[in-house]
Design a protein that fits this description.
By secondary structure, the chain is of the alpha/beta class. The protein contains 7 helices and 4 strands. A 4-stranded parallel sheet has the order 2-1-3-4. It is globular and about 60 Å long. Bound molecules: iron/sulfur cluster (SF4). The site of iron/sulfur cluster (SF4) has 10 residues, from helix 1.
């Protein structure tokens, strides 16, 4: 079984609570970017690691340590999540660093297809900016405008 690892976007997992349902579903079914693996020799997911989070403008090089954590378990392929590939401006810098550090590691850019890529990007933009549904903050308590959940709401 080919050992594979996944490198994901820290923001989508940690802040947006992505449980990677698309990544795992495609891996299990050998679909999407996992269709290259045969039924007789399916991929074995060794582990998942995230990029380490933004800001990355001057720090994309640190991805080498992230990948090292997976490489030490003998992965032969590293999949970058489809989220990372589509929304991260540092994807190619990550790829360059990983290729240089681990020349024998196969890098696959993506995990799953998108049904509607533009809708996905619009959704990520909203989750980032939170304009349609503005989150409540401490000032909402200070200015006595906070909305509070009650048992009757259920
Ligand atoms: S650097 Fe890219 S992959 Fe990492 S948290 Fe920021 S946007 Fe996501």
């Amino acid at each position: 079984m080919p050992k594979v690892g996944i490198l994901g976007c820290d923001v989508t997992t940690r802040e947006m609570d992505c449980v990677m349902i698309g990544c795992f579903g495609n891996l299990r079914g050998r679909q999407g970017m996992f269709e290259q693996y045969s039924e007789d020799d399916p991929p074995e997911l060794v582990g998942i690691i995230s990029c380490g989070g933004c800001p990355t403008a001057v720090g994309s090089d640190r991805v080498w340590q992230k990948v090292k954590a997976l490489k030490e378990y003998g992965i032969e392929a590293l999949h970058l999540t489809s989220c990372l590939v589509q929304v991260c401006p540092f994807t190619q810098e990550f790829v360059t660093t990983i290729r240089k550090e681990y020349p024998d590691l196969k890098i696959v850019e993506g995990t799953h297809p998108f049904h509607d890529l533009q809708a996905f990007k619009n959704g990520i933009k909203e989750l980032t900016s939170q304009r349609a549904v503005t989150p409540q903050k401490m000032n909402d308590i200070v200015f006595k405008r906070i909305k509070v959940h009650t048992d009757e709401d259920e």
